[in-house]
Amino acid sequence: xxxxxxxxxxxxxxxxxxxxxxxxxxxxxxxxxxxxxxxxxxxxxxxxxxxxxxxxxxxxxxxxxxxxxxxxxxxxxxxxxxxxxxxxxxxxxxxxxxxxxxxxxxxxxxxxxxxxxxxxxxxxxxxxxxxxxxxxxxxxxxxxxxxxxxxxxxxxxxxxxxxxxxxxxxxxxxxxxxxxxxxxxxxxxxxxxxxxxxxxxxxxxxxxxxxxxxxxxxxxxxxxxxxxxxxxxxxxxxxxxxxxxxxxxxxxxxxxxxxxxxxxxxxxxxxxxxxxxxxxxxxxxxxxxxxxxxxxxxxxxxxxxxxxxxxxxxxxxxxxxxxxxxxxxxxxxxxxxxxxxxxxxxxxxxxxxxxxxxxxxxxxxxxxxxxxxxxxxxxxxxxxxxxxxxxxxxxxxxxxxxxxxxxxxxxxxxxxxxxxxxxxxxxxxxxxxxxxxxxxxxxxxxxxxxxxxxxxxxxxxxxx
Length: 464
Ligand code: ADP
Ligand code: MG
Hints:
By secondary structure, the chain is of the alpha/beta class. It has four domains: 2-105, DnaA, N-terminal domain (GMP Synthetase, Chain A, domain 3, 2-Layer Sandwich); 135-280, P-loop containing nucleotide triphosphate hydrolases (Rossmann fold), CATH 3.40.50.300; 286-365, Helicase, Ruva Protein, domain 3, CATH 1.10.8.60; 373-463, DnaA protein, C-terminal DNA-binding domain (Chromosomal Replication Initiator Protein Dnaa, Chain: A). 54% of the residues lie in helices and 11% in strands. The longest helix is centred in the middle third of the chain and has 18 residues, at 286-303. The radius of gyration is 24 Å and the shape is globular. Mean pLDDT is 84; it is low at 94-113. Bound molecules: adenosine-5'-diphosphate and magnesium ion (MG). Magnesium ion (MG) binds at residues 165-166, 222-223.
């Protein structure tokens, strides 16, 4: 299967070009394989979403061509590492998250499945730790979960990744199901919503799709930013949304930005999205992180309640260390904790500050790594297929000027260098040139979502 994947990769590389190949396909590896099913590991959610949307179909086709039978391809978010052999392999320490694509060939029958993506059992109100940064969103979620008629509509939750939006949505769904099993709750990722919609269009099954939506009492759509720029889906979403609201049904939406800041979404949809209650979850505070770690320790203990299991003992110092060092998001925090525990149990040693630092050295080093302008220039040049020398050359052709502006923009965003310092690094340019580049890139990102995604991708790659 690994070889098969390499052949699929090669073919796709020819189709999509080297730069796109490097960004999207190279970091993928085979996690699990059977004769008619393969599971591919993708390093981040962002890449997964992109690959699913742009390449999954083609991957499946090529795979089927090569193997002569249809293959079910699914994707998991699974950080990879380079094995001793030089090959990429899944990093077992990181936890995985699966998304599978329903096979397209057999559409209409399967289209009738419910509007429910599976809910994560662990995502309940009981396991959600409340602190200053998330108490508003939490209170709003509770209100919605406990009310028979919508207290505000829609409830719009937004935050950066890994801060608890999906957790809160699942918690609402669990709560409603438990309290009032007669109410039907639909939970879908925006991606899945789009997929279902497009399929309904293709198979002339729109009636059924709308019927299903109308039969819900509560509709939740997660990560709605992925609907941006799909005009017909947006249109449908807008109508569905209005119809459901008119019928007094509760709608809950999540996104990575506030309604007004969402890009590529029509104005009237934005204003409709923002007309209920908008609640954001702020980045975690040290206290909240510590609280979450303590609760996760309890969770891990209860998961391992085999009588023969050694008690998990984690010194408070270690939790404090983690809460200090891992500040990006809760998912990483939990991942780090689980890694530390798994490691200690595997080699049968106590957890100490030293062992923690050792186990997490790669993660911690990344955080502390200093990003240089040279590194940014190199990555950006590679991405756009231009020479590094062109970053400092006087050439003004668009093909080199635009990447150069992107590099300047990223240098401003990702390093602590001043505008004159950045200018010097780009062939002794003036600080006003850098300022202009930053403005220009921001402007373009506003106007063009593809461009914005591209720049965002570069940023994530550099930050990693
Ligand atoms: P988002 O949807 O905002 O990207 P998730 O809801 O998927 O984030 O949360 C990522 C992980 O962090 C999940 O495992 C979730 O249970 C956990 N998590 C986030 N916030 C909290 C919290 N306040 N208390 C407990 N766990 C949390
Ligand atoms: Mg989420």
